[in-house]
Design brief:
Length: about 325
Amino acid sequence: MRPISYSRATDTATAVAAVSADPTSDFLAGGTTEIDLLRQNILHPRRLVDINSLPLTGIATTPEGGLSIGALARMSEVAAEPVVRERFPMICQALELGASAQLRHMASMGGNLLQRVRCSYYRDAESPCNKREPDTGCSAIDGFSRGHAVLGTSEHCIATHPSDVAVALMALDARVHTLGPRGERAYAFDDFFLLPRDSPHREHPMEHGELITAIEVPATPVARHSLYLKVRDRESYEFALASVAAALSVVDGTIADVRVALGGLATKPWRARRVEDFLIGAPANRVNFDQAARVELADARTTPMNAFKVELARRAVVRALETLSGDGSESPA
Ligand SMILES: Cc1cc2nc3c(=O)[nH]c(=O)nc-3n(C[C@H](O)[C@H](O)[C@H](O)COP(=O)(O)OP(=O)(O)OC[C@H]3O[C@@H](n4cnc5c(N)ncnc54)[C@H](O)[C@@H]3O)c2cc1C
Ligand code: SF4
């Protein structure tokens, strides 16, 4: 038995001070990741600072038409918010296709961004895993890797980032606001998630004790016409094998604006900038959607078990963009 001390913070400054003063402490939000991993003997905090009483639950619109989502807003609350449904359907769909209704009521938005990988070796304390224990090796590369990443991998880790809503937020250029021991900071979403490179245990640039306070989503007119497509082994309560967050604006048959990000395929929520660059100004048709997807996936690195994901991803991108453009009712995926 390991004793764990528990305290409930009532203001953000106290929460940050408590966790940053003690390297063995963690924040506790909904607990759907933290408590799971504590029980599995993967995380070993000696102290939990419960942040659920902090005033970080609001979901507000900005004067420009964007959103500010409190870090403690629950996934289900954000998904149900009418303004989010109207202006950012991809966010609602990504949330509703994640986890289960019960989990979504508990799980916070800040915690969602910081959830841990679903690699089974990471969650098995007996297996070598560079992410859990640096320099011990990666069991997945020559092991069971069917669900693992094909983009953004390194020779040290190929685990897929598991979040759905982070994929939609990546497509929308969201920003993560924090309060840390050295004050407030804001991170561009792409900078907030680190590639594994040679230090897969470092997943975020935050320092210990830094608290996510809010997620800012800028006004993005194209997002009104957006969707989140999630392909998985079963239709509910399952992580993505491949997913696509896409928004599309077509004027007179030509693509005027497009956003695409990929999930279930990369070591971080993956902004598909090559798809976007290929498609801007191009005719909106299946041939171009297909070619754009191929360009994005050209650098994919696969294992014998996950090679199928490249074709799956190509089809998912085409299907998402065809659905939004209304070009082609047949689904190739
Ligand atoms: C069975 C199951 C299925 C799931 N399926 C999906 C799915 O399909 N798609 C998906 O996207 N997710 C899925 N999830 C993950 C789930 O969405 C996350 O566990 C949840 O969002 C985490 O939020 P939480 O509030 O419970 O975080 P917690 O578990 O409380 O915390 C998670 C981590 O973040 C830290 N933390 C929490 N809040 C903050 C903050 N504000 N600032 C700094 N650090 C913080 C904690 O210290 C901890 O390390 C699933 C989870 C389970 C258990
Ligand atoms: S893929 Fe990453 S998380 Fe999985 S065993 Fe390898 S190092 Fe660990």
